[in-house]
Structures are given as C-alpha cells and as structure tokens.
Amino acid sequence: MAYDTFDSFRPHYEAAQVGAQSVHGVGNFTKPVAPDVAWLLYQHSRRPVLGFHVFGRHITGDKAKELQTLRTQKGRTAELPKHMQGITKSPQDQFEKNFGYVNDAGDGSILMMGGNKWNFTVNDAWLLGGVHSGLPFYAASVISTANMLDKNYALSITGRELLGLAHFGYVQVHNHKALGVAYVCRDPVRANAATLVEYQATVAGLKSYGDAKKFFKKAGFKLD
C-alpha cells in the first residue's frame, strides 16, 4: 500500500528491518537506520524532480580505480566492459549533474545515502517510493546474470531492486534510445498494494542462485 503518513510507514518499515536481520544476520547491510530517515527518502522517491529513477551497480573503490586506469589507457570514449558499466561519481560521466541524488534531503533520481543511513530496508523504501507513484526505472548497468545474481546470497543489491520491480507489477521494455533498458508499471493496482513487509518476505523466499534465476525467468525479465 502507498504510505501516506509516517504512522502507516513506520510499523512496516520496522517489521521489514527486523525481517532483514533475521534472514541476513546483523551487519553493514542490516544495521538499524531510524525510520524518520527512511520516511524522508520514501517521500522524495515518490516525487523526484525528473519524474523517473535510475538504478544499477555503483562503481566505487577498486572498481572505480580500475575504470579510471582503463580510460587513461584506452581513451575517455572507449567502450567499457560490462562489469564496469554502472553509476559512478566521475565528473566525466556526470550522473550527479544529469540526474541528481535522491536521499533524505534530495529529490533527484539516483539513490545516494550516506553509509550510516543505508541498509537493505532503506533501499527497499526508495524503490517502493517510485513504485507507489508508478514511475519508470532506467537501468544504468547491464541487466545480466553476473550483475543481478549472487551465488552466495542469491541476489546482488541491484538484483534485489530488479526483483522488486518484477514482483510489484513492472515489465521490461527496451525502447529508450538514450537511457537503454527501462521498466514501466503495467499493473498499477499491484504496484500500489506493495509493502515493505511483502518485499522483504519475497526476497527471503529466494534461497539460492537457482531460485533467483527461475524467478526472473517466470517474470519475463531477460538477463543477458
């Protein structure tokens, strides 16, 4: 259900956060984050300035250094390997300038929370904000098995986002020349009924890499 008040959002958020800890254990991805932070993010996600969201793998740390080295060696316009295609903070790619960041203070189109304000459930709140408004999502990474699935945890973080879109009434289209693969809402009733608790339960139901692969195949989401 779309959350119109903090009082309706908070119990679902807190229950989903506990659920994530019970499934994934307590760690960096499941540490508690205050519900008021997630609520602000959710509200901004429902009404981004550009009217859509961008999702995908964030190229950081050693991968960002590898990307910079490749560009130095092969030129700034060289075609990138699939595993290096994603969201970067590089001025060359201009993700922040073109799309802006969405968080508890901003209403852009790319999720960017500080490390102490992010966990799986916060990430889910961001996605559901867009889903509850029926907004399109554009993929900044290649939608591949390597990027979406994880042999240890079934799903990558980006794969978790893709699962949310598939489960809550979105379909995959390939018709945007500039932004590439897009996901659009084809079942507004299903999207509006989505909850954080159901999202977490659906993730928890995938026990293996094979389960995740079957889920996307059944949903009609092609993984390259």
Word description of this protein:
There is one protein chain. The protein has one domain. Helix content is 46%, strand content 12%. The mean pLDDT is 88. The chain is α/β, with parallel strands linked by helices. It is globular and about 40 Å long. The longest helix is centred in the N-terminal third of the chain and has 19 residues.
Quick overview:
Helices cover 46% and strands 12% of the residues.
Beta fraction:
5-15%
> Distance between the terminal alpha carbons, to the nearest Å?
32 Å
Based on CA atoms alone, the radius of gyration comes out at 17 Å
| Elements, N to C (H/E) | HHEHHEEHEHEEHEEHHH
Give the number of helices: 10
Number of domains: 1
**Shape from CA axes?**
globular
Average pLDDT over all residues: 88
Strand order of the largest sheet: 1-4-8-7
Q: Structural class of the secondary elements? A: alpha/beta
- Number-wise, the strands total 8
Largest sheet: 4 strands, mixed
Helicity level: 40-55%
Q: Main traits of this protein?
A:
224 residues; alpha/beta; 10 helices
Architecture blueprint of SSEs:
Blueprint lengths: L5 H19 L10 H12 L6 E3 L5 H14 L20 H5 L1 E2 L7 E2 L8 H13 L4 E3 L5 H4 E2 L3 E2 L1 H11 L2 E7 L3 E6 L2 H6 L2 H9 L4 H11 L5
Parallel strand pairs: 1-4, 2-3
Antiparallel strand pairs: 4-8, 5-6, 7-8
